[in-house]
Amino acid sequence: MPRRYKIFAWEGDGIAPEIVPEAVKVLKAASETHGFDLEILGPHPFGAKYWDGIGRPRDRSWPAEVTMEILKKADGIFKGPVGLPWADTIMPNAVFWMRFGLDLYANIRPARLRPGVESLLAHKKAGDVDFVILRENTEDRYVPIRGKLSRGGVDELVCDVSVITRKGSERIIRQGFEMAKSGLYKGKPGAPEDGKKRLTCVNKYAIIQGDTFFRDIFHEIGKGYPEIEQEVNWVDAWSYWAIVRPEHYDVIVTQNQYGDIISDEAGAVQGSMGLAGSLNAGDDYAYAEPTHGSAPDIAGKRIANPISVILAVGMLLEWIGAKRKDRRLSAAWKRIDKAVDAVLTEGKVRTPDLGGSSSTQQMGDAIVSKIRKKA
To answer: Would the pTM of this model clear 0.90, i.e. be above it?
Structure first.
């Protein structure tokens, strides 16, 4: 009997109720076009708005009936952006619950300057920016080992511990080498500058002890991948060269906090954060999400670009296809990726972040139309 795939969907805050339905439409179109049975569970309420609406009875921002065991029974998960300006503790609670509970140690964030998108960088054209940032997702300063000292009602000292382990470092670095070999989630394998398969380790080695440890493990594992060009950049230097010479980069592997910051820079380099999808993946589970936040300033205007979450769910299909050894899902990811490029190339539908005036729904409909069109 053919397998029925189940994808659990969360909604989120801000623009999430506008962009998440477009991702659902794309998933349905991809499953129908490629002939696999797909059930979407939800979207379920999730995030600061939900937490506020139920009167804040719990330190959680999702329905009590949704448990970790329910999520583990799904083939994959995706969510819209979460967080609102007044709810500074909600987003970490919600996101970390899934990252740590499902051991999603790899945050995969592609950055690609696509056809039809005007670059913020002078003289850069489609294909000049095509790299993937692979961010360790369960360690570093986001591990909840911290404290605060107060005296007489005055906060005097705070402490956040940066945790770097051999296991955490080895598995993300090894995945970086494998991704450089395969060219997964890229427009083309190798760096645009010279076609070389290259893995760049980014941190602040020799200054911070944990970073030096991460770098040394990078060199240890690199001995087993002589076919991959290997280099190490300080994070400040990389931030400069990613703007001056982005075509040099292929795959970047880095620690949690650095990856969080430089992937937002990468979103700008690729033309818009509205094009930046991402995947949080472990050995057994994965969830997809846009890289950007909830954008409350444009919520309700129906002008948000849904491509970020559409590409994210496409990446999720690729991950499920590899996990379940089902080529139909991998083919669906490729079709979604090409459909996005086709819409951007034509330029008839553009949301305001891309210089147009199209609505969120119009962008989603255009991509669905390309997916359904016979190759």
So the answer is: yes
> Which of 235, 270, 305 is the C-terminal boundary of a domain?
270
Q: Of 205, 237, 270, which closes a domain? A: 270
Asked if residues 254 and 136 have their Cβ atoms less than 8 Å apart, the reply is: yes
Place of tokens 């490029």: 341
**What are the 10-residue block averages of pLDDT along the chain, 375 residues in total?**
88 95 98 96 87 57 83 96 74 78 96 94 94 97 90 94 96 98 97 98 97 98 98 98 97 97 93 95 97 94 98 98 97 98 97 96 98 78
Which three-class secondary structure state does DSSP give residue 148? strand
Do residues 98 and 127 both lie within one domain? no
Residues in the chain: 375
Please state, in angstroms and as integers, the Cα–Cα distance from residue 67 to each residue in 98, 150, 284, following that order: 10, 36, 17
Distance CA 65, CA 42 (A): 13
DSSP 289: E
- Rounded to 5 degrees, what angle do the CA atoms 104, 106, 107 make? 105
- Residue 109 in contact with residue 172, Cβ under 8 Å? no
Task: Count CA within 13 A, CB hemisphere, residue 368.
Answer: 18
Residue numbers of the domain that contains 258: 119-270
332 shares a domain with 198: no
Distances 315 to 119, 180, 185, 288, 302 between C-alpha atoms, Å: 23, 16, 7, 7, 24
> How many other CB atoms are there within 10 angstroms of residue 8's CB atom?
22
User: Domain with 154 in it: what CATH number?
Assistant: 3.40.718.10
